[in-house]
Write a structure and sequence with these properties.
mainly alpha; about 75% helix
Length: about 130
């Protein structure tokens, strides 16, 4: 393996990590925005609760995400393994397949937050 090939692989992994971290931050901000806006539409007028600003809403989204996150650390594809399963390796985490799955999950999260905001807006019109 030449030095330029190694450099390209390292740069690719660095950009991948930066890209995934950026997607995670954007997802938290958008989901916090949705929670903050929908809180103002539904909870404040119904219960007289105080307005929820963006930063506390992001914190709530992060806390709920942390508390409800479920990651299967074992591969499901290999059925010939024992019940314990085969641990996901470092190389698998940075493979194109895994990165595509992670990016797709974040894309779905962003799309779902916008869709929830749209549906919340429609319901808000009837209040």
């Amino acid at each position: 393996m030449t030095a330029s090939t190694v450099l390209v692989r390292v740069v690719r992994k660095v950009f991948l990590i930066i890209g995934l971290a950026s997607l995670m931050v954007i997802t938290f901000i958008l989901n916090g925005l949705v929670v903050s806006v929908m809180w103002g539409w539904f909870v404040v007028p119904t219960f007289g609760a105080p307005v929820l600003d963006l930063v506390p809403a992001i914190g709530i989204v992060m806390m709920v995400s942390f508390m409800t996150h479920q990651e299967d650390v074992y591969e499901k594809e290999d059925q010939s393994m024992s019940k314990v399963g085969k641990k996901v390796s470092y190389a698998y985490f940075f493979s194109d397949e895994k990165c595509a799955k992670i990016a797709y999950a974040y894309f779905l999260s962003i799309a779902m937050s916008q869709l929830m905001l749209l549906f919340g807006w429609i319901v808000h019109l009837f209040m």
